[in-house]
Amino acid sequence: MKASGFVLVAVVLAWAGVAGAEPRPAQLLIWGGGKDTAEAEASLGRWQERAKKNEWGGTLKVAEGYPRIVQSDTVPGLKPGFVVVVLGACEPAAGPKVLETLKAFEPAVYARDVTWAQPLACPQLGPEWRVVQSKSWKKKDGTLTAVLLQTPETKEPNETPRQALRVMLRASDGRLLGLDERSGTPVVDDFTGKLTFIPTLDGAGPTVTYLTYGGGCTGGPNVYETRVKYASDGDTLSPQVRERTLVDNSNTCDD
């Protein structure tokens, strides 16, 4: 037996042998898996690879000890005969909100209502971002996904939440091929009357337009507009960037 398989079996057996909590209804969030341990290990590896690249960073954190590989036969409510990768066990009322966030990044994630005999360990949402909207586009070499994120609301009357557009290109097997993120605060700019951050999830792919400032003089700063249109070039994420100057105050300087 390979060392990795031995370690995995040991972990599964150790977990199964731990004194569990009182069995109770729960919602399991399942990343993937398969009919045998090898397929489950491959699925877990894809989670770990994407987590290292911070794909859902700031939006969600799994509990210590998760994801974990579980034999479906050991959990009432799961279909026997499979080995699954579990991201967490939630209160039934809490599971759907967490699932919604997970699906924004990986539509294949699913939930099952079960009877769970271990302590609940639901992934925590936030703290930096929450998901506002998500959309995917099928491309020749994979799937392009854009997730619009927003910082939590505050009680400050004049503080506008920031937004970010996080764009990922994934291969057909789930591997993350590329990631790009642009962020800003969607307020009206005093010098141009334009919104300073405009994400778009319509059309053939995601785009984002945002304003930046620099230079200038007594008449105010220079204002620049950047428009990023996302596409894929084979297995590479290809942000197509176009920049232009909206306001040039360089000539307002005093001699």
Characterization of this structure:
The chain is of the alpha+beta class. The protein is 16% helix and 44% strand. The chain has 3 helices and 14 strands. It has helices at residues 3-17, 37-52, 95-105; strands spanning 24-34, 60-61, 68-71, 83-90, 110-116, 124-125, 130-139, 142-150, 163-170, 176-184, 197-200, 207-217, 220-233, 236-247. A 4-stranded antiparallel sheet has the order 3-4-1-5. Strands 7-8-9-10 form a 4-stranded antiparallel sheet, covered by helices on one side. A hairpin with a 2-residue loop joins β7 (130-139) and β8 (142-150). The longest helix has 16 residues, at 37-52.
Enumerate the strands of the largest sheet in spatial order, edge to edge or round the barrel: 3-4-1-5
* Bulk shape: elongated
What does the radius of gyration come to? 23 Å
Number of strands: 14
Bin the helical content. Answer: 10-25%
Order of helices and strands: HEHEEEHEEEEEEEEEE
User: What fraction of the residues are assigned to beta strands by DSSP?
Assistant: 35-45%
Low-pLDDT stretches: 1-19
Can you summarize the main beta sheet? 4 strands, antiparallel
Arithmetic mean pLDDT: 90
Distinct helical segment count: 3
- End-to-end CA span: 80 Å
